[in-house]
Amino acid sequence: MATFEKLMVPFLALNLDRRSRIGLQRQLYDQLRTAILSGTFSPGTRIPSTRELAADLGVSRNTVAGAFDQLLAEGYLEGKVGSGTFVAAALPEELLRVNAEAPRPARSRSPVEALHASRRGQELASIPLSPSRLAHMEPRPFRPGIPALDQFPRALWARMAARLARHAPSAMLTYGDPAGYRPLRQAIAEYLRVARAVRCAADQVIVTDGTQQAFDLAARVLLDPGDTAWVEDPGYLGSRAALRAGGICCMPVPVDTEGISVRDGMARAPHARLVFVTPSHEYPLGVIMSLARRMALLEWARKQRAWIVEDDYDSEFRYRGRPLASLQGLDEAGRVIYTGSFSKTLFPGLRLGYVVAPEKLVETFVQARALASRSSSGLEQFLAAEFLSEGHFGRHVRRMRALYAERQQTLLVAVERELAGALEVQPSDAGQHLVAWLPAGSDDAAISAQAAAAGVIAPPLSAYSMEARLRPGLLLGYTAYNLRQIREGARKLAAVLQKAL
Amino acid sequence: MATFEKLMVPFLALNLDRRSRIGLQRQLYDQLRTAILSGTFSPGTRIPSTRELAADLGVSRNTVAGAFDQLLAEGYLEGKVGSGTFVAAALPEELLRVNAEAPRPARSRSPVEALHASRRGQELASIPLSPSRLAHMEPRPFRPGIPALDQFPRALWARMAARLARHAPSAMLTYGDPAGYRPLRQAIAEYLRVARAVRCAADQVIVTDGTQQAFDLAARVLLDPGDTAWVEDPGYLGSRAALRAGGICCMPVPVDTEGISVRDGMARAPHARLVFVTPSHEYPLGVIMSLARRMALLEWARKQRAWIVEDDYDSEFRYRGRPLASLQGLDEAGRVIYTGSFSKTLFPGLRLGYVVAPEKLVETFVQARALASRSSSGLEQFLAAEFLSEGHFGRHVRRMRALYAERQQTLLVAVERELAGALEVQPSDAGQHLVAWLPAGSDDAAISAQAAAAGVIAPPLSAYSMEARLRPGLLLGYTAYNLRQIREGARKLAAVLQKAL
Question: How far apart are the C-alpha atoms of B219 and B217, rounded to whole Å?
């Protein structure tokens, strides 16, 4: 009885909260385990019976028995036939030492210096992927690179999703082919052949979880840590980030009116193994790479046996003239890896992109893709395949092309009306944003921050630059916003600039 | 006229195929471009008028004009006012040289040796991820690790998908938070706290594109190339593959009846920086790690400042006794990274997994995840969040637990009836497969191949082993197959074994 009374003291300290979402049995289990781990109940201590404890705590005997069963199963308690239940005598020494030593809450227990990532992890943590850490927030003017979400044919998409999910063939529910769902690969290959003059068979198309994964795979498949790659300066942060994450040195190469300067690249890093380019619409400047420059780049890659990664991210949106064919379609030497996604044509939340790889690299890309995340979503791949093959994709892109041309015009008018003198914009034949030039000498990063504080998103051009000394400017995306939003955004931006300039 | 006639010869060689799916204008464009690139038409050559060529080819003048416009836009042709259209004089030298040198079909043109991947790429290509390259094919007995796809509540899922897609808030369509959709992170955290005794806040949960990505991130965030990690031997191929892909040396550590042998690990690689374990149900042996071994492993990690990656892949399926709490829940030192996915509880085609990281590592994991593939699918995350928070998930798992217990029993009976003497199986308290032991001295890999040829999938135990010398055996998954399929599979396997043994 003495032992029992002594024991009841800590047991009475048990505190079950009946209003908690966590069940009583679970609470009891947690508290008993903590008491054992903290040494409050030492090994060999006899535990009161379920009847006694249930009466004491005012809970059902089943609740107590359930908690005891689990502690027995996990080895914290042991039952001895005919003599009751005890705190396990055989608890490993280590357990007791760990807990006796430092009875503090879990996460704060370890020395800070031991909790950091590897050197590679720390490097990863330092790489900027976007000029804003909030790129995933609700789109608002003038965040670039977001399609007209309000114009997406939701009802059609919902009907197709429902039909597919209802029938859900095993092939959609089980692990997918890491190369991608075959009908989707076929539809992508056909689309790219016709619309982008990409030379490819369906076998060369590898479906990815978006373009960022395509870049990550390209860096890992094509390059070794320490290799050098040319990147456009100014240029897209996502591709540069993927290279750096793969241990690659990024050599900034200036962009002129014809695109990336091959001559400068050769002077700065003649032995580069790869170049990342956006020939259809240089990001963020919007330059369309000239044919001469394309040929020079291909020739360099052929001679140097280097790779060209072509990011054809928004080529569908060309408003005047015909789109230039892809760089890949001009390549006679099999040095171009073509990448694209449905983020700009359908919507970014659909995590589907693609790589078109030279035949000899296909297997390696597929393997790298499988290692990275096995395969893309079954439902999304089936949906996209149907959307493409039934012509919905083409219709949607054509409708958006007309809409985006209008929205660009709306933005041009709004800037002219509200921002004349402060911002200088030119119409653009392509893309989803305009570069709005600020007066020379102004600080685009500071102005962008002030605009953000006033509720307007306008990334500073300088955020995309490594060494390039550019006239300051802001990126103004227009595709996702209607007339009212564009006008309101322009007015807010005008107020910011009036103060800042 | 002489020039014109000479020119018409190659033009007459143009060959438009009216039955092709590729439009006539596109065909004409392709063939003209090829003729220019191959030097058939040299720079400065005059091109016949659209009228002449249209008449000659028997196509509309618009078709020809369209092709010409594109070639003009791309710089292959140039128009001189009043004097017609010419092959561009300014075609870069490089272009002509490339094509004059080697007028062969595109992909076969380059020297083979120049077309290979980097050393890292070649290493990636050599890493096995699964014992079969066809792991994504239609599930058939006894492929392990596939849930009962036929029992998934498709109608409910379809209704939810349709409702979500129809309303599709911008947050679902735009770029997602790389850490994951907040309500899903909350639902996962709550589920793991209650069901797995994981100690975590929603902030520590990072949504991934499945477990394989979680492994890939862990390798990159926690380790540097050249570091050593302990892996269970035999063990899961996916985690080992992710480590190797990250440049990590995998040290095989034997598994005994209590789980991974910490003593052997310390003897073989005392300075390892990480250990990958499956404590709830060792893959593939099915051993449940004892409490003593768990404490010893945690103590080692604490002292060594090493990381433990806990792959809790099928802990939901425990048929007898209560599930042991997660290893993470026992960790007082913040050394455990917990990973799981919905592949076994819902279906693998849903590419959603999760990492629970110690607080100080969360930001680095989120950043690495963003670099790898930005974010997971909007629709799938919204769907999963609703499925969990509305209780459908719990109901489905409970129903499957009962069903899988039955299916395991069915398999045990079928093996007893059809395969007694050839295969030895024991009931298992947990998991989704059984290990069926073959007579000592038999070749499980050869038998597995023969079974595959007979239409039965039964991965050989040896495929998961690095150095471990195990009795030969086959893995028999049972969760995805009904009574008829299990019996038929057992009969086919019996026929194979009768010949082989």
Answer: 5
pLDDT in tens, B483-501: 999 999 999 999 999 999 8
**CA–CA distance from B454 to each of A415, B92, B385, B486 (Å)?**
71, 60, 42, 15
In Å, how far are A135, A142, A404, A432, B211 from A147, measured between CA atoms?
14, 12, 9, 8, 30
pTM: 0.81
Of B197, B211, B247, B196, the closest CA to residue B226 belongs to: B247
Contacts of B90 in chain A (CB under 8 A): 292
DSSP A381-447: HHHHHHHHHTTHHHHHHHHHHHHHHHHHHHHHHHHHHHHBTTBB----SBSSEEEEEPPTT--HHHH
What does the alpha-carbon distance between residue A411 and residue A316 come to, in Å, rounded to a whole number? 20
Cβ pair B347:A173 closer than 8 A = yes
| CA neighbor of A336 nearest in space, from A210, A222, A211 | A222
Contact A379 B155 (CB under 8 A): no
In angstroms, the Cα distances linking A292 to B6, B74, B117, B385 are 28, 10, 28, 52
Q: Chain B interface, mutation test: which of A143, A377, A380, most B Cβ atoms within 10 Å?
A: A377
Q: What is the pLDDT of residues B324-378, one digit of tens each?
A: 789 999 999 999 999 999 999 999 999 999 999 999 999 999 999 999 999 999 9
**Chain B residue whose CA is closest to A324:** B74
CB distance from B121 to chain A under 8 Å? yes
In this complex, the residue of A136, A146, A163 whose CB is nearest that of residue B176 is: A136
